[in-house]
Amino acid sequence: MKKHLCWVRRDLRLHDHHALSKALTAPCEIVFCFDPLILNKLTDKEDRRLTFIIDSLKVMEHELQEKGASLHILYGDPVVEIPKLAKTLQVSAVFTNRDYEPYAKKRDESVGHQLVELGINFHTFKDSVFYEQKEILNGSGQIYKVFTPYKNKWLETLHEQENIVPDFKVNLKNLVPWKNPKNILAFDWHKELGFIETSSLVKAGSLAALKRLKDFDKKMKDYGEARDIPSLEGTSNLSPSIRHGCLSVRDMVRAGLKNTTEGGRKWLSEVIWRDFYHMLLDAFPHVEKKCFKPDYDQIQWQGTKEHFKLWCEGKTGYPLVDAAMRCLNQTGLMHNRLRMVVASFLCKTLLIDWREGEKYFAQKLLDFDLAANNGGWQWSSSTGCDAQPYFRIFNPYNQSEKFDKDGTFIRQWVPELAHVDKGDIHSPTPLLAPDYPRPVVVYEKSRQEALKMYAVVKK
Ligand SMILES: Cc1cc2nc3c(=O)[nH]c(=O)nc-3n(C[C@H](O)[C@H](O)[C@H](O)COP(=O)(O)OP(=O)(O)OC[C@H]3O[C@@H](n4cnc5c(N)ncnc54)[C@H](O)[C@@H]3O)c2cc1C
User: Fold this and answer.
1) What's this model's pTM, rounded to 2 decimal places?
2) Rounded to an integer, what distance in angstroms lies between the CA atom of residue 65 and that of residue 82?
3) CB under 6 Å to ligand 1: residues?
């Protein structure tokens, strides 16, 4: 009898799942594989992402066990492990959703070759993005390099498709019944992989993600104003869930389209930024290592290792920057406005290469996503596609006064400033806050140096 295997990776849910909906047209089993090449790069043994993944798999396992089935959990090189399992189970085809990161593309190509050698088909599907690279092209058939026309075409394309958002229903009745003794609920996978279980402010799994999306819908109308204030819960905090696929991108698009307020439109536009960056990484994989604009690779970054360390630790003497970095270090989360502030500060005030900051975020962020992180860093450092111009340098004091007016966010994360009032908190004197570090650099002087440093690329 024909049997299928569905390989899940960044799509940890059992609803609206493209590959699974197709795989379940025949009796099917589901597999997740921990990849040592990815895990070995995680330096912190209490990595929040791993716990988030394990917890999301547990939610899936609960649902599967209710249907008498279970997840296969593997640990090893997927290029070896996936074909091996497919052969053991004697499946006719393996189904998976496409991943656009350079490593994933190479890996999937190799898995595909191995499967074909074994006479097993390999089917891949669009799932993690709404539109893929070649679906949104300009009038000359080229990729958009500017966001606004890309977004307009994206919306126009959806409109031409009568705003129909597909829902890839999964028929769990076709699951092959079996019991896995090493299932994710029964077996300590943290220990097996050499990690320690940790906690997260954002609950893992699809049930929590769908609830968060539903709750956020009530706030969406205010998103336009609230989204820039870190002390408010004005954004959805769904990025870890969408990163690991506890939600589908179509869940997000449906919610954005349904909410016809100005806030809903703005929120949908942010979801489209996500597609934009995924499309760019897929089309221009060099951005993983190099500046999108090659001229910017000539920049001689002048910052020091010592300043980088202070930035990482949240000890720069710039209150909003320090509050943001301490929040990141303690929670794995950072508000979008603050990501822009600390990224601009690293590159254009401390004059440090954007790749250093990108790497640090990659270690710490619960929602780390190569495409969005790279896009955000290249935007902030002006090296990217449709980035802000290099001479636009965020003044950290003004950003602080504007987006944390009363100092609420700063007080939450910088205890040395908890007693300082709102008039002084953005630039506290040593007399007021003797335990708080002095600014590591003088902003105005650094600004001039940044302009000189970037001048090599001035057209
Ligand atoms: C330097 C820098 C690094 C970043 N690194 C990441 C990262 O590793 N992973 C990540 O998911 N986002 C990243 N972002 C984008 C953005 O900061 C986060 O997506 C956002 O803060 C997540 O919070 P939220 O879920 O409450 O977003 P909301 O404001 O509720 O937005 C909804 C969703 O839209 C998407 N989105 C929103 N803004 C952006 C954006 N600017 N670019 C791409 N997608 C966006 C996210 O999936 C988000 O969950 C980065 C931005 C910058 C400036």
Assistant:
1) 0.97
2) 22
3) 227, 235-239, 242-243, 270-271, 273-274, 277, 336, 339-340, 343, 361, 365, 367-369, 372-373, 375-377, 380
